[in-house]
Amino acid sequence: MGPAPARAEHRGTAGEPEVMESALEGTGKEGKKESLKKRKMAGSPGEGLLQPVKLSRAELYKEPTNEELSRLRETESLFHSSLLRLQVEELLKEVRLSEKKKERIDAFLREVNQRIMRVPSTPETELTNQAWLPDGVQVPIHQVPYTVKGRFHFLPPAQVTVVGSYLLGTCIRPDINVDVALTIPREILQDKDGLNQRYFRKRALYLAHVAHHLAKDPLFGSVRFSYTNGCHLKPSLLLRPHGKDERLVTVRLHPCPPPDFFRPCRLLPSKSNVRSAWYQGQSPSGDGSPEPPTPHYNTWLLQDTALESHVQLLSAVLGSASGLKDGVALLKVWLRQRELDKGLGGFSGFLVSMVVAFLVSTRKIHTTMSGYQVLRSTLQFLASTDLTVNGISLCFSSDPSLPALADFHQAFPVVFLDSSGRLNLCADITTSTYHQVQHEARLSMALLDSKADDGFQLLLMTPKPMIRAFDHIVHLRPLSRLQAACHRLKLWPELQDLGGDYVSAALGPLTTLLEQGLGSRVQLLAHSRPPVSEWDISQEPPKHRDPGVLTLGLLLRPEGLTSVLELGPEADQPEAADFRQFWGSRSELRRFQDGAIREAVVWEAASMAQKRLIPHQVVTHLLALHADIPDTCVHYTGGLLDALIQGLKEVSNTKGRIVVSQGGEPVMVPNVEAILEDFAILGEGLVQAVEARSERWTV
């Protein structure tokens, strides 16, 4: 979820709960003016009839204007053809939200604002005393461990602000989501709420109380919980209208603290805000040992405090530049077709908007560029820049108290800092996901440069799920096995940082392990996690294992794929011990023709089809050895076309028999059973069974 700006002239100061309502009034007036113009035009004579355009001879043959010549040159140099330009323009018309629907959404948002401000207050209680919650609502996070210090009571939000891409004009159909931030009053929060999930517990209780009262209102047809970008510590409340407008919009409520509530120095990536003794349910050791840092936990706190600054930044950059807005919309379509923007660690639409803002600030994109130019420039940047090595920052301050980029590289695999210089926008993105984005950007740039006739169709109109993008697919299920993998890999600090999310904790080490083992056999290894579905407010929140499966995609490199030998160091080298530890029982000493004695791993593969499936042996062996994941939990898909590539094993010679027809001409009568038998051999591995049936032939 990324913030998008409300108009600056409608923004109130802190403590003004009418921010959302005043912002929506401006859009409503503009919509009314346009609707009045339409009614005036509709009342003109000849309504519904196409009138011929009368042009004089001078107008008919006049020279093109400078603007028309510029448009023709731009079409020739950038779009390669007028058809591509028309396709892009038509796509933008399809994904934009119409003014008529905006008016209905604005009216619904005003009603939501009024309902939220009328939610009653509650008396103050301990955080662990949740008896005041009614039976029809559950706290939307897992409170593990349950014991935590602090007190809580509910007060109406100090401010209700529309954030996200709706008011900016970069949201795209068909799923229209409007993000609304509810600023929690300072009276509810305490100084040490940043420790041990106290703030996240209060945030969840705040949302549960709002959900209980809004669920009874007939205005809403659906009131459900969901995780914000897949983060299980940050639920959001989804509101949908009642009746025919139920699919019009989804309003997502996000409680957040006042912008300057947390001390920034306490949320640096090297700081710890989750105590080991509390998380493990033990008494403090008192030996003075340092606490492990919690960079992801700190980032999730900073994300809630930075909504206002992100709104202001995007408003200043994208506010009046229609080309930038079109470019962001095209980039969102590009990400959605490749399923790169979903769930925790996805390359979201908010993130790509911030990338565009960075390119504008560094003058690699100009505000006068068209949407297609913004798309090309951003894809070129993603294809040529490796943020896993050299991070970027929207902060141009020389304040010595700010952390350096190197500090963030030690804590996160991908680094992109916001304008404060303290928040890593790519904190949840893994190296594999970023390399997949890079790979897709390179393919897209090559497609655009090739001037192919179907370039637009392949770039923005064709879905490209993982099954289409990769050669081999690996499914790991059940996900509960990853909990044992975390213990085997000793990922206790990561579990403490991620609030017990063992899937996220194990994901990075597992992909690194497999990349090291597969080596030159793979060009790219990526992963995909199904998004956690929303749930009813009366249900318990989903567990980490509930999505059911973790999918890995292998893009193979033909050059090293079929090698049956993993050559290690010589036996007397110090690296030999590491090689034996990595490969376990598969490593053995071998003497080669040059007389060298080396550690080596030899894979069993007799035919070329078996050699192409050596990655299957590598994956199952390494997961069982290092992550305690048995081969029964590894479901490997690959080599499905090998049966066709190998050709026929046996082909029947009897395809039919010659008979003489009544006219005296020889005719071939096909042998149906023999032909069906050949089909069975041809489709071995793809077809379960072929039933032959006998028929009488009359000639």
Automatic annotation (TrEMBL):
The keyword Nucleus applies. Residues 1-50 are annotated as: Disordered. It is found in: Chromosome; Nucleus, Nucleolus. Belongs to the NRAP family. Its main location: nucleus. The keyword RNA-binding applies. InterPro entries: NOL6/Upt22, Nrap_D1, Nrap_D2, Nrap_D3. This is Nucleolar protein 6. GO terms for biological process: rRNA processing; tRNA export from nucleus. Part of the small subunit (SSU) processome, composed of more than 70 proteins and the RNA chaperone small nucleolar RNA (snoRNA) U3. Interacts with RRP7A; required for NOL6 localization to nucleolus. Keywords: Chromosome, Nucleus, RNA-binding. One of its GO terms (cellular component) is chromosome. Gene3D superfamilies: 1.10.1410.10. One of its GO terms (molecular function) is RNA binding. It holds the Pfam family Nrap_D3. Part of the small subunit (SSU) processome, first precursor of the small eukaryotic ribosomal subunit. During the assembly of the SSU processome in the nucleolus, many ribosome biogenesis factors, an RNA chaperone and ribosomal proteins associate with the nascent pre-rRNA and work in concert to generate RNA folding, modifications, rearrangements and cleavage as well as targeted degradation of pre-ribosomal RNA by the RNA exosome. Residues 178-317, 324-462, 468-627 form the Nrap protein domain.
